[in-house]
Amino acid sequence: SSERARERGIAYYTPSIDSYSASRLTMVSALQKALVNNELALHLQPKLDLRTSRISGVEALIRWPAREQPVPADEIITLAEQTGLIKPLTRWVLEQSLELRSRLLDSGHLLDLSVNISPNNLREPDFPIFVKRLMGAHLQHRGAIIFEVTETSMMQDPVNALKALNSLAYEGIPVSIDDFGSGYSSLSYIKQLPASEIKIDRSLITDLATREEDRVIVQTTINMCHSLGYQVVAEGVEDEATADLLKGMGCDMIQGYFLSRPLPLEQMLAWLSKRREAVTKQHAPG
Ligand code: C2E
Ligand code: MG
Ligand code: MG
Ligand code: MG
């Protein structure tokens, strides 16, 4: 995909945006306006803990609802990264995430909230300071804010990425390695990461039920990550058979359309309440 290519540094453009630079410029200024006018949104996708059958957290994913033509999240991010908008955009995402976390808590849902961070953010000299100030003002016992960084993006600049992640971890921020297994990082690099969680890439999960090789790779990854002390999340789980397989393999958590697509806050609150009711009924005596 263009996202993968971008993350490997092979191609610094997204064809649908860059084929006409005039429309690209229009898009950049529209995105800038959307950011300033608070027209971007974060949708939430739940993460299920297979060991407890509880929802342990939600991931925030960027959306641009006002557009006639929906712009995919990775295109929004690519555009922002190419123009320097990624700095204010990520800061908005982080501030908004704290707001969402407290809205969830107000409705009785104490959940972790995962946010996606661009490798560009890790290169901002003042990023750790910004994070420290922002998070310092908000109590972490209200559910952690987990920072997700993709495996491939870190490999562009492994030494500095490691430094930045270490300073976040030092502030008590949990770090998660996103899209794991889609790149080429070495095991010696992986074991140095100050991460608490690894998310196995969707490409290894999609055909789990039908491909023996994928089951071997995923089982080995789960075992290796557990030995290194990481929690393991499987992304892109779309059916019950795959969820059952992963549970049998000792995977800790799953995310995917099988549970829910990413939803706006109000819909996620309704989904969470409905699920909580169903679980309570199941466990009621008689
Ligand atoms: P990601 O962080 O790996 O997020 C998972 C993507 O897979 C999301 O796509 C989600 O909607 C999709 N997904 C979840 N479950 C399933 C499933 O069962 N099947 C399929 N086919 N897809 C599933 P989305 O929202 O389009 O985001 C794409 C990527 O854009 C994200 O990948 C992340 O790397 C990036 N992104 C999204 N929001 C942000 C943000 O606020 N900041 C930054 N820096 N990146 C973001
Ligand atoms: Mg993610
Ligand atoms: Mg991912
Ligand atoms: Mg991704």
Write up this protein:
This is EAL domain-containing protein. Residues 24-276 form the EAL domain. The chain is α/β, with parallel strands linked by helices. The protein is 50% helix and 16% strand. It has helices at residues 2-8, 15-18, 21-36, 73-83, 86-106, 119-122, 127-136, 151-155, 158-170, 187-190, 202-205, 212-227, 240-248, 265-283, and strands at residues 41-49, 54-63, 112-116, 145-150, 175-180, 197-200, 231-234, 253-255. The protein has an eight-stranded mixed β-barrel, surrounded by five helices. It is globular, with a radius of gyration of 19 Å. Bound molecules: ligand C2E and magnesium ion (3 copies). The site of one magnesium ion (MG) has 4 residues, from loops. One magnesium ion binds at residues 178-179.
- What are the bound molecules? ligand C2E, magnesium ion
Derived structural class: alpha/beta
**Molecular shape:** globular
Poorly predicted tracts of residues: 9-13
Helix content range: 40-55%
Please provide the ordered H/E string of secondary-structure elements. HHHEEHHEHHEHHEHEHHEHEH
Return Rg in Å. Answer: 19 Å
Average pLDDT figure = 89
Summarize the SSE layout with pairings:
Blueprint lengths: L1 H7 L6 H4 L2 H16 L4 E9 L4 E10 L9 H11 L2 H21 L5 E5 L2 H4 L4 H10 L8 E6 H5 L2 H13 L4 E6 L6 H4 L6 E4 L1 H4 L6 H16 L3 E4 L5 H9 L4 E3 L9 H19 L3
Parallel strand pairs: 2-3, 3-4, 4-5, 5-6, 6-7, 7-8
Antiparallel strand pairs: 1-2, 1-8
Bound molecules: ligand C2E and magnesium ion (3 copies).
Ligand C2E binds next to strand 2, helix 4 and strand 5.
